[in-house]
Design goal:
about 65% helix; about 5% strand; three-stranded mixed sheet; elongated; mainly alpha
């Protein structure tokens, strides 16, 4: 009974802290003729551009799923947020002061479960409730930091905000970031998620940074606390405050079901970034994720083919063949052929290219592939 009482007390405390920290009520709109109203106007323009961006992943089911997690975290403010996912391989998300929440595909690619998603969404909700964007805007105006970059009423404002550049132009302070981490942790615990997963998010990213020797130049690292220290801080907070609910929901199955079908598309964006060390690290992490075995082997082949050395081309051929054996994309046949051509194995390449053309559905690039076959037929 004592454990149950303490468990309920933790949840009640977390819920109280979430609501107490909010500076704005649900359904909030800024007062007329204020700098906040002007800022929201700029955010609204940026959101309009984001809504119609060619990079937007416009999928109603995906957006409903992400919104459902957010609403579980903060039901009173559910209607105040709109969620947009765009194709960008980097690990980031940002909330505008008007409630537009921008998620990059690279973030969704790197998460393991719904609890980790909740940790990051809770962090963004905290920025909104604390009006951190407004605070930074006012600070920048007072110091003159933004006067030479933009002013309201000109078109670049919306472009900057819709592109997620606002966070880089007016970064939140370290104290704001750490406060948002702590509030997000409380929200996810109050919603019944396993709070230990918040630390896992940042430890995974710290491991990625170490393997790929990255950090400098990344937007999220220029405006946020270090990943390893952040993970340790969240781990201690979860252990000290929420140890009784360490076996709470992590939502592996729900996250896999909602995100799994998008992972190949998100991996394509990662491959376009030409970051071989990071891609190799992510592929290893994704080996047993929601992505199908055939797709996984195919994208591993793509990664190896892009590196392009003889050693990696041979490994790419093996990966593509595993993709073919595991019902991977038809393009595995085509790209096996292309890899074999680069290895000088023309007759073998033609066999795979012909198998690609003989598939049940005529490929859109059939003419190009046929021309390639003719080019190398007599070599």
């Amino acid at each position: 009974m004592n454990k149950i009482y303490r468990y309920c007390s933790v949840l009640m405390f977390a819920a109280w802290q979430t609501s107490a920290a909010a500076e704005i009520p649900p359904g909030y709109q800024p007062a007329s003729d204020t700098d906040e109203e002007s800022l929201w106007y700029a955010f609204d323009r940026g959101e309009s551009l984001l809504k119609h961006s060619p990079l937007r992943v416009s999928d109603a089911a995906l957006e409903r799923y992400l919104k459902s997690v957010l609403c579980r975290l903060t039901p009173d403010y559910c209607d105040d947020f709109r969620i947009y996912v765009t194709l960008n391989p980097e690990f980031n998300a940002a909330t505008s002061g008007n409630g537009a929440l921008h998620i990059w595909s690279g973030m969704l690619l790197r998460l393991d479960n719904e609890a980790q998603l909740a940790a990051l969404l809770g962090h963004e909700v905290a920025h909104y409730l604390n009006r951190d964007a407004l605070r930074q805007w006012r600070t920048a105006k007072q110091t003159g930091a933004i006067a030479s970059v933009l002013s309201f009423g000109i078109s670049p404002v919306g472009d900057l905000l819709s592109g997620g550049f606002f966070a880089g132009l007016l970064p939140f302070s370290q104290s704001q970031e750490l406060a948002a981490d702590a509030q997000g942790l409380k929200m996810m615990a109050a919603a019944g998620y396993n709070p230990a997963e918040a630390a896992v998010v940042w430890q995974n990213f710290a491991d990625e940074q170490a393997v790929a020797n990255i950090g400098k130049g990344l937007l999220i690292m220029s405006t946020h606390p270090g990943s390893a220290g952040r993970s340790e801080r969240l781990r201690r907070q979860a252990q000290d405050t929420y140890s009784l609910i360490k076996n709470a929901d992590s939502g592996h199955a729900a996250y896999r079901q909602a995100i799994g079908r998008f992972l190949p598309r998100f991996l394509e964006e990662q491959l376009k970034a030409r970051q071989p060390d990071r891609t190799a690290f992510l592929l290893q992490r994704l080996r047993h994720s929601a992505i199908g075995s055939g797709d996984w082997h195919f994208y591993r082949g793509e990664h190896l083919r892009h590196i392009g050395s003889e050693k990696h081309l041979l490994q790419a051929v093996n990966a593509y063949q595993s993709a073919i054996a595991n019902n991977g994309p038809a393009q595995a046949l085509r790209n096996t052929g292309y890899a074999l051509i680069r290895l000088g194995k023309y007759s073998e390449a033609i066999v795979y290219l012909q198998r690609y053309l003989a598939g049940p559905t005529p490929p859109q690039d059939g003419g190009v592939v046929l021309a390639t076959i003719e080019k190398y037929r007599d070599r």
